[in-house]
Design a protein that fits this description.
Layout lengths: L2 H11 L2 E6 L18 H6 L5 H4 L2 H6 L1 H11 L9 H11 L3 E6 L5 H4 L5 E3 L2 E8 L5 E2 L5 E2 L5 E2 L6 E5 L8 H13 L2 E5 L19 E5 L12 E3 L3 H13 L5
Parallel strand pairs: 1-2, 1-9, 2-3, 9-10, 10-11
Antiparallel strand pairs: 4-5, 4-8, 6-7
């Protein structure tokens, strides 16, 4: 059986689908991949520090002006819109499937589709907070001072609500993501090399029927996936939807 037909069949038969996504799902929306050649990590590493250093909480506290200069250059994409790779899962939810999205991305594109359950394990760059107190700050209250440092109306340092290097993941989000994978009968991994922990460790919770990988490059433990597609997720999922699933209903 053709692998695309196999994937469509798995989706039709699944009751609870979990998508585990990384930066590769958003490249078709104009956002560079994070760790691939020429990606965001490489761009930062061409400076006088590594990509990890530039996105470390200590770097923010010691060099806030430089942190935000890098952030606005490499991590802010206000005009990016969801591509079909994101929209696909909203369509599955609308067809009656239970869908959870677990994403390593901070770009908010899954949330922008309106899908109900998104667990952003590395945070959400569309939300801001006071750095030392974790108090939420409305985007319209954000002020850039004369050095390009983000502050609130009180002059306190604020930052995107994302997990920087040197910081723990949100325990509640991680637990919800673990529970979703543990309950799913179909896992679709998209656009990630599965080399960032502890997020990648979430896949250990999966014991469902089928797992699928959609990623342009090879990843560890390929043999653990039932199907593997090395191509663009948006184009692939749009083809599968239009060819095999467009009449999907409860």
């Amino acid at each position: 059986m053709d692998t695309k037909v196999q994937l469509a069949t798995m989706i039709k038969e699944a009751k609870h689908i979990v998508a585990f996504t990384g930066a590769g799902i958003s490249t078709e929306s104009g956002i560079p991949d994070f760790r691939s050649s020429g990606g965001i990590y490489d761009q930062l590493s061409k400076m006088q520090y590594s990509g990890e250093e530039a996105l470390h909480v200590d770097f923010l506290e010691r060099y806030p002006e430089l942190f935000f200069k890098n952030y606005r250059k490499t991590l802010e994409f206000p005009d990016a819109q969801p591509n079909f790779g994101h929209i696909f899962f909203k369509k599955l939810e609308e067809s009656g499937k239970k869908v959870d999205i677990i994403t390593q991305n901070i770009d908010h594109l899954h949330q922008a589709t309106g899908v109900s359950h998104v667990w952003p394990v590395h945070g959400n760059a569309s939300k801001w907070k006071v750095h030392h107190f974790n108090e939420p700050v409305a985007t319209e209250e954000r002020v850039w001072d004369e050095k390009g440092i983000a502050r609130n109306q009180k002059g306190e340092l604020i930052r995107p609500d994302i997990v920087l290097y040197g910081e723990p993941l949100d325990e509640e989000v991680f637990q919800k993501a673990w529970e979703a994978i543990a309950e799913a009968d179909l896992l679709i991994v998209i656009g990630t090399g599965l080399n960032v922990y502890p997020a990648a460790g979430l896949l250990d919770a999966f014991s469902g029927e089928h797992s699928v990988l959609i990623n342009r490059t090879s990843v560890p433990s390929l043999q653990s996936f039932d199907l593997i597609f090395q191509e663009s997720s948006g184009e692939l999922l749009q083809e599968i939807w239009e060819e095999y699933l467009i009449d999907l209903h409860t």
